[in-house]
Design the sequence.
């Protein structure tokens, strides 16, 4: 039975890139996702020499680049700033291609429930331009799931002119934020999923703490069903571990790798 390659968001180790790549190698992951919005790996600061060195380190560590993270932290809801954000996003996608991947994950803001909302049209126009650019490079801007239901996101994507804007599927975000069934969401978004985050969590609905991120297998994501759903829709890409909380990132990621390997070795997979 074919299994999914396991990756890790390099920044989840919370250390420098060289050390993080060594950690990834030690844990036996096959790929990495890295932030390209600021810092050393942003298009504005990355020199050809630094890019060559980073790719050498990644290759020596046995890692391929699963995706770049291009979340600029603003979404695409403001027409006054969208032109700048769109151009920066395009440069990040150009960099992704140089790094050997064709996926840039991002957040676009919350898709309004009402399609007549002005923000809906503004976001559609921005994503249409991004979609056409990505499509011209045989690449994808992948929207991370979570702020809205899978059904609403699908409706938004269905209206775009091409498949250059797709989905980075984060099952925990759906479980924690919208309360969606992460398994059903896979089938809803089956035509758009190009990358995934391996994360778990639980919706709480308690005052100022509406949800909590948890180690894989201890939240509301039914991973055996979820992984089988990914397999059934024909997904063959990475399960990229993202760990945003906790005091022992290396140990948490190590446990996540072990958990995913056990899940894919189980008779039910």
Sequence:
């Amino acid at each position: 039975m074919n299994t999914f390659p396991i990756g890790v968001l390099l920044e989840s180790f919370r250390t420098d890139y060289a050390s993080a790549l060594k950690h990834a190698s030690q844990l036996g992951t096959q790929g990495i996702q890295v932030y390209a919005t600021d810092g050393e790996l942003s298009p504005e600061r990355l020199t050809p020499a630094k890019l060559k060195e980073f790719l050498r380190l990644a290759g020596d560590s046995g890692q391929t680049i699963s995706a770049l993270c291009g979340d600029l932290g603003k979404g695409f809801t403001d027409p006054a700033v969208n032109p700048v954000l769109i151009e920066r996003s395009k440069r990040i996608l150009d960099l992704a291609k140089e790094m050997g991947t064709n996926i840039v994950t991002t957040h676009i803001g919350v898709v309004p429930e009402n399609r007549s909302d002005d923000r809906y049209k503004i976001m559609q126009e921005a994503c249409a331009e991004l979609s056409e650019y990505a499509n011209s490079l045989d690449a994808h801007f992948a929207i991370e799931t979570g702020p809205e239901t899978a059904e609403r996101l699908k409706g938004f994507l269905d209206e775009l002119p091409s498949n250059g804007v797709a989905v980075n599927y984060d099952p925990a975000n759906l479980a924690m934020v919208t309360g969606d069934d992460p398994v059903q969401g896979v089938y809803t978004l089956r035509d758009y999923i190009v990358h995934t985050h391996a994360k778990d969590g639980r919706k709480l609905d308690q005052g100022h703490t509406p949800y909590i991120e948890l180690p894989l297998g201890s939240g509301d994501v039914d991973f055996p069903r979820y992984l089988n759903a990914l397999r059934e829709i024909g997904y063959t890409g990475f399960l990229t571990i993202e760990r945003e909380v906790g005091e022992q990132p290396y140990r948490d990621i190590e446990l996540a790798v072990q958990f995913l390997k056990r899940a894919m070795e189980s008779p039910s997979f």
